[in-house]
Amino acid sequence: MAAWRSLVLTLFPEMFPGPLGQSLAGKALDRGLWALDILDIRDFARDKHRSVDDTPFGGGAGMVMRPDVVDAALHAAQENWAGAETSGEEAPGRRAPVLYLSPRGRLLTQSLVRELAAGPGVTLLCGRYEGVDERVLEAHDVLEVSLGDYVLSGGETAALVLMDAIVRLLPEVMGNEDSPGEESFGENEFEGLLEYPLFTRPAEWQGRKVPEVLTSGHHEKIRLWRKAQAEEITKRRRPDLWARYTKN
Ligand code: SAM
Questions:
Q1: Rounded mean pLDDT of 23-29?
Q2: Which of 101, 164, 219, 241 lies at a CB distance of 3.0 to 4.6 Å from 158, suitable for a disulfide?
């Protein structure tokens, strides 16, 4: 099967792969376990100044990314995907969704990350200025995805976070030592809970000892202790997650 692929539309192509060229994701990129392609939105500007934005209708501060320029970039992205399909790189019929990173989008969660990791890939539209003209988002049936309730200066850092979360779940990307195991939001006995506290050597550090149960070698007791800790931390720090967990 073809590698999971990300096609990023941005005004700042030099921001990629950035941190994703390092460590786990970088090694996986080198090994061809995932692919990253970039389209520079400015290449689709039509005037001699290569302008990609204009003032907002109705007035107000800032600039808005033009629909005709973004549309041309999205069409080029579609062609790019079609090329990958016809060259046999992609399973037919599995379309990669087009996502626009946006503070008003669907909140990025681990379940959305898993869903996207299971597909063929994503096209990511990175906004700048005040954002993108609404009509082009409608025309391309774009799914808006938010990283959280705060405003970034551009979609590029959000795209990097999204890809980081996805890539580590792809087959063969994580070795045993990096295994997702029982981490927060994982699909396991601890699903829906935040992670329990972690400890490593030395067993005593600055007068602080590792909880005794963890050095007991008693697997069942360790499991129960970790579960109780995960529940306690979730209850205290994230009442919203705790309410969902207890409901399920
Ligand atoms: N005017 C927009 C608003 O008030 O919602 C904010 C625009 S922001 C300065 C520029 C770009 O950053 C957005 O188009 C989007 O692509 C990206 N961005 C900002 N915050 C984000 C977030 N929380 N999640 C995902 N992308 C975000």
A1: 98
A2: 101
12 and 69 together in one domain: yes
pLDDT tens-digit map of 84-106: 876 655 555 568 999 999 999 99
- Determine if ligand 1 sits within 6 Å of the CB of residue 148: yes
Structure tokens at 162: 């999204």
In angstroms, what CA-CA distances link 162 with 14, 42, 125, 145, 168?
18, 23, 12, 9, 11
Predicted local confidence at residue 218, as pLDDT:
98
Lowest mean pLDDT across 12-16, 50-54, 68-72, 87-91 = 87-91
Among the candidates 167, 200, 229, a domain finishes at 167
Residue 61: count other Cβ atoms within 10 Å of its Cβ. Answer: 8
Residue span of the structural domain in which 89 resides: 4-167
Indicate which residue's Cα is closest to atom 19 of ligand 1. 152
Cα separation of 165 and 113, whole Å? 7
| Mean pLDDT value across residues 154-165 | 98
Distance 60 CA to ligand 1 centre (A): 16
- Kindly give the distance from the C-alpha atom of residue 128 to the centroid of ligand 1, in angstroms, as a whole number: 7
CB 192 less than 6 A from any atom of ligand 1: no
Angle between helices 155-167 and 110-118 (to 10 degrees): 70
Does residue 151's CB lie within 6 angstroms of at least one atom of ligand 1?
yes
- Report the atom number in ligand 1 closest to the C-alpha of 108: 24
The reply to whether 114 and 193 lie within a common domain is: no
Closest atom of ligand 1 relative to the 146 alpha carbon: 24
The total number of structural domains that make up the chain? 2
* pLDDT, tens digit (0-9, with 9 covering 90-100), for 164-180: 999 999 999 998 656 66
